[in-house]
Sequence to fold (210 residues):
Amino acid sequence: MSQLAILPAGKRAKTKVQNRTAILDAAREVFGEIGYEPCTVRDIIRRTGLAAGTFYNYFKSKEEVFAALADDGARRFGPILKALRSQNDDFESFLRAALRAYFRFLADEYQNWAARRPAEEHLHVQGQTPEMEAVFSEVRAAILDAIARGGVPAADADYLAAACIAIAREVGDQMLNRRPVDVDGATAFSTALILSGLKGLPQAQPAEDR
Fold:
């Protein structure tokens, strides 16, 4: 019987949290030092000090570990985004503030991981998690508010939210590959690109016509 199985329920839950955190912390370090593509699950396990079987109780692959790291970042960025919505009345101010906060979050969060990633490495996590969906919902809600106030064209809010998030992710990825990391430049470029693109958007069709 494993050590985890004979622990009291409270200690067992605490141990599960500690093990998962240890794996994620180790993965951040390994991805930063070795790079995502060349590293293996074995590299992550070695850094944790845990048994291989313990790792596979939580994750099936390094892809799942990377997705969990992305989820964790989205979960912690969501409240920042929500606060910015309440602080900025017009869409342009919210957009600029949200992009700046996101790029600053990336620069701070991944200074020991993504910022040291090989320049040719580009990672994309597939799938939608509850945490990522929450971020999408905040962006979509801000767009719908702006449409209702007449601040932006009555475009398709789902497409527009997805486009804003995609631009932020891709520009953020390139920003982290530069030295120095240019938060202001990434913010100015992304804001201008999105705002200029808004001018040419078609009006959204009524829901019953789609």
Observations:
- The longest helix spans residues 9-34.
